[in-house]
Write a structure and sequence with these properties.
By secondary structure, this protein is mainly α. It contains three helices and two strands; from the N terminus they run βααβα. A two-stranded antiparallel sheet has the order 1-2. The chain starts with a strand and ends in a 5-residue tail after the last helix.
Length: 90
């Protein structure tokens, strides 16, 4: 469920742009699985893959669990960056 942009190789940097579908926290698991399955199926469609590729995306399907893992990883990574440079919200 995460179309990802292509990565650029810069030593010492790992910044990946990604997008995902989110639903409200109390969405029933069956509905989440259905949305995930339908989205993953759509991402295998050649027309959709080509259209995404035209705009610079590499479509990658995933599960809700994989998205949760990615999200936790991103929060940890960027929280560390924010703390290390002293970014504050005004």
């Amino acid at each position: 469920m995460c179309p990802r942009s292509q990565r650029l190789a810069l030593p010492g940097y790992d910044v990946t742009v990604w997008q995902a579908l989110f639903v409200p926290a109390k969405t029933p698991p069956g509905i989440v699985r259905k949305i995930s399955a339908d989205t993953n199926k759509a991402l295998t469609d050649p027309q959709i893959k080509n259209k995404l590729a035209e705009t610079g995306y590499v479509a990658e399907s995933s599960s809700p669990e994989e998205l949760e893992t990615l999200l936790k990883s991103e929060i940890a990574k960027w929280s560390a960056v924010i703390k290390s440079v002293g970014i504050k919200i005004d």
